[in-house]
């Protein structure tokens, strides 16, 4: 694993839960030490909550993860490298150039990027045919979706092999047949955010009520099925759905208008409301813990169903 921040730590725990040996490398050695103690804490928490993945004990999983101070040692003999450095194209290109010089020609090169196109990160690499994006959803331990996005030059075996690896560690891989800005998850996420912004900008609804539209409405179903199956079940199949609602939906979609920039008075209005119904900015870390507890409960429920 190349780098040991938030996402690097999650990947380490996921791979270790299936028995893989993980070597953690970071440009800041102290960060690796921090990461290892965070991982230790998280494994304790997961064990206590009964959420530890895989068949191995907490101790066995922890022992699978080691630190590595020399990049050569990390890359040598690795069959898969997951890069999790900050989201800057130049940084990613630079670290992949370093890995490229040391790696085996069969090693899979996977980047965790959430927004950069695989072709832009890998075009300069000698082993660019081994490269793909493997984009996790945060927090990966409770939100198992992973988007796999090949570059135009990625070898045919790379996506299926990575898909098998993801299934083995308990994630849910989806494959994008070609690269596109935002991949699938963020294109959908930002469409929702864009329309939410417009409804508040046009003073149709309050921020608090808008959030309820998702948390008590659409989101309840979306925890178990996507928008296509939702439509399918809301009528007698997809043909029946669009015969009934297609014209109305099309007219509505045409009324959406161009995207609005997130800024100005609407931004101030949303911020003010969120400080009341969610929490003041200073209490965000506490509210994240509240969120994570609920995600744990949902993950438990989904496991039991
Ligand atoms: N956080 C999320 O919600 C999320 C979700 C999906 C994907 N991602 C992607 O994962 C990647 C990492 O995000 P993060 O949230 O873990 O970031 P982070 O800031 O928590 O971690 C980045 C790590 O990279 C290390 N680093 C910086 N420069 C380096 C270098 N040159 N060589 C090696 N290590 C270096 C830092 O020490 C740090 O440990 C990004 O591409 C991000 O877009 C993040």
UniProtKB/TrEMBL annotation:
Show the InterPro entries listed in the entry: 3-OHacyl-CoA_DH (IPR022694), 3-OHacyl-CoA_DH_NAD-bd (IPR006176), 3HC_DH_C (IPR006108), 6-PGluconate_DH-like_C_sf (IPR008927), 6PGD_dom2 (IPR013328), NAD(P)-bd_dom_sf (IPR036291)
**Record site feature (Important for catalytic activity), residues:** 135
Q: Where is the 3-hydroxyacyl-CoA dehydrogenase C-terminal domain?
A: 182-268
Q: Which Pfam families match?
A: 3HCDH, 3HCDH_N
Q: Where in the cell is it found?
A: Cytoplasm
One GO BP annotation is: fatty acid metabolic process
Q: Which UniProt keywords apply?
A: Cytoplasm, NAD, Oxidoreductase, Phosphoprotein
Where is it mostly found? cytoplasm
Task: Return one GO MF term.
Answer: NAD+ binding
EC no. given is 1.1.1.45
Query: Could you state one GO cellular component term attached to this entry?
Result: cytoplasm
Q: Where is the 3-hydroxyacyl-CoA dehydrogenase NAD binding domain?
A: 4-177
Q: Which family does it belong to?
A: Belongs to the 3-hydroxyacyl-CoA dehydrogenase family.
Q: Quote the subunit structure annotation.
A: Homodimer.
The entry's protein name is L-gulonate 3-dehydrogenase
Q: Which organism is it from?
A: Lottia gigantea
- Please name the taxonomic classification of the source: Eukaryota, Metazoa, Spiralia, Lophotrochozoa, Mollusca
